[in-house]
Amino acid sequence: MSTTSPENSGGRWGALPILGMKAGKLTATIAVTFFGLLVVTFLIGRVVPVDPVLAVVGDRASKSTYDAAYLALGLDKPLYHQFWIYLKNALSGDLGVSVLTKKPIIEDIARVFPATLELATAGILLGTITGVPLGVWGAVRQGKLADQVIRVVGLVGYSAPIFWLGLLGLLVFYAKLGWVAGPGRIDIAYEYSVTQVTGLLLIDTAMQGNWAAFVNVLAHLALPATLLGYFSMAYISRMTRSFMLAELAQEYVTTARVKGVAEWRIIWLHALRNAAVPLVTVIALSYAGLLEGSVLTETVFAWPGLGQYLTNSLQNADMNAVLGGTLVIGIIFVGLNLLSDLLYTVLDPRVRRRT
Vertex 202, ends 199 and 206: CA angle to 5°? Predict the structure, then answer.
């Protein structure tokens, strides 16, 4: 007959306070980061040289109208009181009303963000799928022709103006060769045949079996996604090469080679696995950079996403929308950073022991 020893029982229940401390630490980190983000966005809204009252009422409004709007916006209250109102509204999901669209900003962002999400996800997938193998290959062939070519290709993608590459791509692949569709997300002939459920047109058209629209959406997505994928690939391949060179110089690699372990196993199963830990952060930050709204790419391709929404809002002095979008971007960065930290514990057991 088996019995549970006090030591085993204590060990099992003794882990609960540790898990509670970890959860509390994570919650406190999120709360402090979010509070700091709110402070920054609030201060940005107060230091930019744009009168929020004029943005609402226009520059031809009478003084009485201006004064009424000034009071309605709470600008007569002390700065700390204004921040308290802003904090309460933000926590309740109220980011204000857009001057440009006359709709709640949270609704505008929910409408435009799926377009950016679809474009950024396609871009980071292409960038990761190509960037990681190229970075590994460059590290393995260090100093040789293949390495030099990979570095030059990455340098061009990392340094060339992305709007210039976009215009060049439209000229060559759309205007001259006709291989891809033009600006926009979907042709107007298919736009009203798709019922948007998720807002991700590739998924929505596939779910509805509308394959003609699916092909049209893919044709519009191909060029901007490839452009963002190339941009991401340049950075990811560069960092992968750097991490792999550091790992291939470690003693465990030399020991594995002395023991006769196959070179492909050393590279792909040992060195790359260790390099994957810092590489997670690189990919997460690259993804966050695309999700924040690739402003120039979305402008060149008339892509109705978050980047174009923020550009239009800024051009029309719609500071509520700009600050709301900035807050969402900050939340994306914080969320992906936290996700990369959690992935560390999966990829590296040493992190689990330290935490």
Answer: 110
Give yes or no for a contact between 69 and 287, defined as CB atoms under 8 angstroms apart.
no
Closest CA to 41 of 335, 331, 309, 323: 323
Q: pLDDT of 273-320, one tens digit each?
A: 888 888 988 998 889 888 875 778 888 898 998 888 888 887 777 778
> What's the DSSP call for residue 197?
S
Residue listed under structure tokens 């550009």: 311
Nearest CA among 331, 289, 282, 285 for reference residue 307: 289
DSSP letters, 32-81, are: HHHHHHHHHHHHHHHHSS--HHHHHH-TT--HHHHHHHHHHTTTTS-HHH
Q: What fold characterizes domain 105-354?
A: MetI-like fold (1.10.3720)
Check if the beta carbon of residue 149 is closer than 8 Å to that of residue 258.
no
Cα separation, 155 vs 231, whole angstroms? 10
Distance between CA 167 and CA 135 in Å, rounded?
28
Distance CA 178, CA 175 (A): 6
Q: At what angle do helices 79-91 and 6-47 cross, to 10 degrees?
A: 130
Task: Give the span between the Cα atoms of 209 and 152, in whole angstroms.
Answer: 42
Task: Report how far residue 299's alpha carbon sits from residue 176's, in angstroms, rounded to the nearest whole number.
Answer: 21
Q: Which residues of 312-347 are buried (b: 16+ CB within 10 A; e: fewer)?
A: ebbeebbbbbbbbbbbbbbebbbebbeebbebbeee
Residue-wise pLDDT for 112-129, tens only, equals: 999 999 999 999 999 999
Domain boundaries defined on the chain: 6-91, 105-354
Q: Does the CA dihedral 110-112-116-121 come out positive or negative?
A: positive
What's the rounded Cα separation, in Å, for the pair 302 and 297?
8
Q: Record the pTM.
A: 0.82
CA distance 209 to 21: 49
Distance, CA of 325 to CA of 314 (rounded, Å) = 11
